[in-house]
Amino acid sequence: MLTYALRRILGMLPTLLLISVVCFVVIRLQPGSFIDQYLEDPRVTRETVESITRQLGLDQPAYVQYLTWIKGIVTEGDFGFSFVNGRPVSSLIWERLGWTVFLALLTLLVSWAIAIPLGIYTALNRYGPGATVLNFFGYVSLATPDFLVALLLIALVLNFGGTNVGGLFSPQFIDAPWSLAKFLDLLNHLWIPMIAIGLEGVAGLMRQMRASMLDVINQDYVRTARAKGLAGGRVLWRHAVRNAVNPLISLAGLSLPSLISGTIIASIVLNLPTIGPFLYDSLLNKDQYVAMTLLLFSALLLLVGNLLADLALAWADPRIRFE
Amino acid sequence: MPTRSPLPRLCGLAGLVTLALCGGALAAPKKVTGYGNLGITNGKPGGTYTLALGDSPQSLFYYGVIDNNLGLISQQMFDGLVEFNYATYKVEPALAESWTVSPDGRTYTFRLRQGVKWSDGQAFDADDVVFTYSQIIMNPEARAGDAASFKLDGKQVEVRKVNANTVRFVLPRPSPAFLLQMRSFIMPKHKLLRYSQEGGAKPADINSAWPSNVRESEVVGTGPFRLSNYTAGQKVTLTRNPNYWKVDGRGTKLPYLAGLEFLIIRDPQAQVAQFLAGNLDQLNITGAQFPDLKQREVAGAPFKVFRSTALFGSPPFVAYNFDAKNAALAKVFSDVRFRRAMQQAVNRERIIDTVYNGLASLPGHGVAPINKEWYTNTTRQLGSFNLAAAGEALDAMGIRDTNRDGIRNLPGGGNLEFDLTYGTDSSVYPAIATILQSDFARIGVKVNLRGILSSRLLSTGQSGDWEMILHAFGDQPDPELRKPIWQPGGALYYWHRSLQPAQDGGRPNLTRMAPWEREIYNIFEDAAVTTSASRRKALYTRWQLLFAQNLPVTPIAKPENIGAVSNKFGNYIYNLGVIPGYNPVPLIYQK
C-alpha cells in the first residue's frame, strides 16, 4: 500500500506540470492584460504604464515568465506575487484559507449526514409516500442553483426583520475576540450558507446513495445473509450499506477542489470570505500568478482527493487490493 | 497677482486668538462653518457609522495602487494642502493655511497650518510635504502617483522647503489649474522614508509600502480617522483621530463620530440587503434600485433616500471612430453632418426615463451643468429626438437606401451598417445600446451590438478596433483636469487616434485635424497657461460651443447621485465618491 501511494504521488508531478502549462496558456489567451485598468485613469501616462509593465516583468516573453514562476515554486516554494495586492500569493491565500476549509468541511459533513440516511431510506421504501416526497424535494433542490436559494433565504430573513443577511458575523463581532456571544452569532449566520450550499450536495448524494443501495440490496451476498437468518439491521448495516457507500467515497475525493471553485457565486451573494471570489477576481483582473496558483492548487486537491478516495476504498472494501 | 482667499486670513486670526488664549500652544484648527444651507447643524460626539466597501482594499498605501476601495478609506485618513468647499466646490485651505502665487503665475508658496499632528502624535511639517511630492507623487515608478502632472513642457516642477512651515513650488511655466493638484494626500515621512529613494530604496519599492497585512499602527495620517483594524475580506475599522485639526462652529473637535466602519460586501444586492437589515448606515445606490428603496422610505422605513445633481461622475457618450478600418465608414464618421444627423436619432428623454428611472438630466458638453464656474448652457445644441429630420439629413448627405433592402447605402454602395461596442456588465450600457440600435434601425441605419466587459472599453477604444462605442468619462471641476480627454491629440481622445503624437508628450498631428479640432486644440493650449480667470472662462465657453456643434462625441445623459442614509445620523451630505479633497464625513454625527 505504501509503495502504491508513493508511486501515485510521484505520478502527480508530471500531471501537475502539464496542468500548470495549460493554466498559464489559458490565462494568457484571455483578451486584455492586468495593465488595462491603469489605462482607465487619466493620471496614468504611457510612461507609467511602461514602468509598471517592467516592474511586474510583463515585458518579458511568456515562456520566461512561466519558467521564472515554476523555478520559484520548485527552488524556494515561492508562488509568485499578486499584481493587485503587491504581496506574495501564498500569504494572501493563507489569509483566506481558514474560513474556506471550515465552511467546505462543514457543508460536506452536513450534507453527508443528511444525504446518506435519506438515500438509504428512499431506497428501502421505494414506493412509500415518504420517499416520494423526499425525492420530489431532492429534484427541486438539484434544479435550484445555490445562489438563488441564498437570495431567497436572505429575502425571507429580511421579511421577518432579521439582520443576519450575509457574512459570517454581525458587524460588531467581525474583529471581536472569541466569546460565547460571538459563537452564537456565528451559528445564527451559518445556517444560511449551510442550507444554500449544502442542499444541492444533499440532493445529489441522496440520489447516488439510493441508486447504489438499490444495486446492492438485490446482490447474492445480501440474499445469502438474509437466508442464513441474520437479523435485518445487521444485514443492512454490515453488508448492504458498507458496500453501497463505496461510490460515495470516490465522490468525496472528487469534491475536494470545490474548496476553491465550488461556491463562487453563492459566496459572493452571501458575502462569505472564502477563496472562491478571490479566484474570480484574480481571473477578471488578470492577476496571473494568483490565478495560476489557485488553479494549480485546485488541480492538486483533485489529485490528492482521488488518492485519498482510493486509499479509503481499499480500507473500506476488502475486495480491493493494490499489490 | 497674489491670490488670497478671505478664509485663511480668518483662520489665521483664529489661530492668533488661540495662541493668545492658550499661551504658547500653536494649534490653528480650521473652523468648519457656513454650510447651514446644506442643512448642517452642530452635532454631538460619539457613535459609529457603518459604510459598505465593494471589495478588500488592495493595499493601504494610496499611491501604490489605483483602487477605488482604498481611495474611499484613504479619504478618511489623509488630507491635502487644499480641499474643496462642500457647497461651492471652490478650493479652500486644508493642511495649508494660506498661499500666495507670484505675479508671473509660476511660484506657489504655501504656509502650512501650525500645530497639526499625525495620528501617532508626531508633528506635521514642511518635510512631510516635500517628501510626499518629491519622493512619491513625482516618482514615475509609483503606480498611482501623478508624475506627469508635475512635468510641464518636459520640465520638472520643483518643490522646496523654505522653512519648517513653508513650502514653495516653482513651475517651468504658469499653470492656473495647478492649485487643484495640491489636493493630493500628504503622507508621513517618518513612516515611509525607508521605502523611498531618499531613504536608500529603489524607485519602484515605494509601491510595496503598507501592504494589506501591514501593522495597523504603521498607517499614520492627518485625516479625521485612523486605521484600527483590517480583517481581510470582511471589514475595515477606523477610529477617531484625536489629533484632527478641524473644529465645528462652536469649537467642538471634529470628527463627531467615534468610529467609522467599512463592511466589505461585493454584491450590490447583498449591500442593499445589509442596508435594509440595518447593518449599514449609508449606501450609494443606482437609479434601478431607487424606486424600491424610496417606496420603503415612504412606507415608514427608518432611512431617507437622497438624490442630488452631480458635479463629478461619468456621463455616458457615444463616439464614432474617425479612423475606422472601413474607409467608407471612416469618411462618413468624420463628417460632422453625419454626427449631427445621428444625434437627432438619440432619444435622450427615453433613456433618462427608462434606463435611469428619471434620475438623470441632460448632459453638458465636457462640463457638468451644475458646475457653475465653467458650464456654458448648450442644451439647445443637443437638439430634440426627431427621426424624420435625422432621415432627411442623411438623405441630404447622399446616404440613401439605393437597393431597397431597408438599409441605407454608403456612397460606395455598401450598407450603412456598423458595430456598437458597449459594456455588458453595466447596469445602464446594455439598455442604452438596445434603445440606440432600435431607433437607428427605424431610419435605415443598421447597428450590430458588440458586448465586451466594461473594464475593457477604454483599451478597446484606444486599440482602434471598433466603429461606434458607448463609454463614459468623468466630469471634473476644472476642464484643465480633463485635457487628455477633450483636447484633440490627447492621450484619451481615442475617436480620432491618428492625431495622437508618435511619442508621449510629443506634438500631436496638427495637419490631420479638422479646423474645429485645431481650434479646440489651441483653446486648451492657451487656457493651460492663462492666469486671468475671466479669459480662461471665455476660452472654455468657446470650447463647449465648438464641442456642441461638432460633436467629437455625442453625450447622452448626466446621471444623478443617489444615496440612502439611516435616520440615526445627521449632517449627511451626499458623498461624491473618491475625490481627494472632498470629505464630508467629519461632520456626520449620531443623533
Characterize this entry briefly:
Chain A is an all-alpha fold and 323 residues long. Chain A is 75% helix and 0% strand.
Task: Characterise this structure.
The complex is a heterodimer of chains A (323) and B (591). Chain A is built from 15 helices and no strands. Chain A is mainly α. In chain A, helix 1 (2-29) packs antiparallel against helix 15 and helix 7 packs across helix 8 (180-217). Chain A starts with a helix and ends in a 7-residue tail after the last helix. The mean pLDDT of chain A is 84. Chain B is α+β, with helices and mostly antiparallel strands and 591 residues long. Helices cover 27% and strands 19% of the residues of chain B. In chain B, the strands form nine sheets. In chain B, strands 20-19-21-17-22 form a five-stranded mixed β-sheet, with helices on both faces. A four-stranded mixed β-sheet of chain B has the order 2-14-12-11, covered by helices on one side. The chains are: A mainly alpha (323), B alpha+beta (591). At the A-B interface, helix 2, helix 3, helix 5, helix 7 and helix 13 of A face strand 14, helix 6 and helix 13 of B.
Euclidean distance between termini CA atoms of chain B: 46 Å
Largest interface: A-B, 51 and 56 residues
Mean pLDDT of chain B: 88
Oligomerization state: heterodimer
Uncertain segments of chain A of ≥5 residues (pLDDT<50)? none
Instruction: Based on Cα principal axes, name the global outline of chain A.
Output: globular
Strand arrangement across the biggest beta sheet of chain B: 20-19-21-17-22
| Order of helix and strand elements from N to C terminus of chain A | HHHHHHHHHHHHHHH
- Report the biggest beta sheet of chain A as strand number plus sense, adding barrel if it closes: none
Low-confidence parts of chain B = 1-26
Tally of alpha and pi helices of chain A: 15
Strand content of chain A: under 5%
Q: Structural class of the secondary elements of chain B? A: alpha+beta
- Number of β-strand runs of chain B: 26
Task: Quickly give the structural class of chain A.
Answer: mainly alpha
The portion of residues forming beta strands of chain B comes to: 15-25%
**What is the residue-mean pLDDT of chain A, rounded to a whole number?**
84
Ends distance of chain A: 7 Å
Residue share in helices of chain A? over 70%
How many alpha or pi helices of chain B? Answer: 16
Work out the helicity level of chain B.
25-40%
